[in-house]
Amino acid sequence: MSLPDRKEAEVRRLLVQRTAEPVPADLAERALADGARLLRRRRVLRTVLWGVVLAGLLALTAWSLAARPWSEPPPTTTPPAVDW
C-alpha cells in the first residue's frame, strides 16, 4: 500500500468506528460568550494603548514647548573682550 492509500484507509477506518464523545448542549453558547469576552478584552486593550500613546504625545508636546530644545542654549561665560 502506498502512503496516500494508507492514510486514506486509516481515515476511513476512523470514520467507520464513530466513537465520538457527546458534545455538550451549551457548547455554542459558551463559545459565543468566550468569543465576546475575547473581543471586549481586545477592545479595552486597544483603547488603553491608544490612550497611553496620546498621553505620551501630549507630554512630549508640552515638554518641547516649555523646554524649547531646538533653540540655542544661553552662554555660560561672557565672550572675551576685544581690544581695538
UniProtKB/TrEMBL annotation:
Entry keywords, A to Z: Membrane, Transmembrane, Transmembrane helix
Which residues span the membrane? Answer: 47-66
Q: Which domain of life is it from?
A: Bacteria
Put simply, this protein is called DUF3040 domain-containing protein
Which species is this UniProt entry from? Streptomyces spirodelae
